[in-house]
Amino acid sequence: MALSKEEVLKIAKLSMLEFEEKDIERFQHDLNDILKFVEKLSEVNTEGVEPLAQINDIYNVFRDDKIVKSISNEKALENAPESLEGSFVVPKIVGEN
């Protein structure tokens, strides 16, 4: 299944990415190559293969939670350019397109 230019543009919009017109064809080609590779993977016989998240026996090692002295909320916000109700106010960087 090859992606059309319109589908690439839709994926870009959903990803909040903007492509220049000259790059759309290259991304279309790259995405289609990825889809071809995934299609090949679907042909692999995985009967009897257990699902897994990673191939080696590495697990997260967590430290014990300890209560430690920290600065107060007021002190943390002391140098903030703007705060509201005990939180930092920052500019909106993700919007609806």
Sum up the structure in keywords.
97 residues, mainly alpha, two-stranded antiparallel ribbon, 38% helix
Outline of the structure:
Its EC number is 6.3.5.-. The chain is mainly α and 97 residues long.
Describe the protein.
The protein has a two-stranded antiparallel ribbon with strand order 1-2. It has a domain at 5-42. It starts with a helix and ends in a 9-residue tail after the last strand. It contains three helices and two strands. By secondary structure, the protein is mostly helical. A hairpin with a 2-residue loop joins strand 1 and strand 2. The model has no long low-confidence stretch (mean pLDDT 89). Keywords: ATP-binding, Ligase, Nucleotide-binding, Protein biosynthesis. Pfam families: GatC (PF02686). Belongs to the GatC family. Heterotrimer of A, B and C subunits.
For the sheet with most strands, the description reads: 2 strands, antiparallel
Compressed to H and E, one letter per element, the order equals HHHEE
Report the C-alpha radius of gyration, rounded.
24 Å
Q: On the 0-100 scale, what is the average pLDDT?
A: 89
Strand content: under 5%
| Count of DSSP strands | 2
Instruction: Calculate the terminal CA-CA distance, rounded to whole Å.
Output: 27 Å
**Spans of at least 5 consecutive residues with low confidence:** none
Number of helices: 3
How much helix, percentage-wise, in residues?
25-40%
Q: Helix/strand/pairing class, anyone?
A: mainly alpha
Using the alpha-carbon principal axes, give the shape.
Answer: flat
User: What order do the strands of the largest sheet run in, or round the barrel if closed?
Assistant: 1-2
GO molecular function, one term: ATP binding
Protein name: Aspartyl/glutamyl-tRNA(Asn/Gln) amidotransferase subunit C
Family: Belongs to the GatC family.
Keywords: ATP-binding, Ligase, Nucleotide-binding, Protein biosynthesis
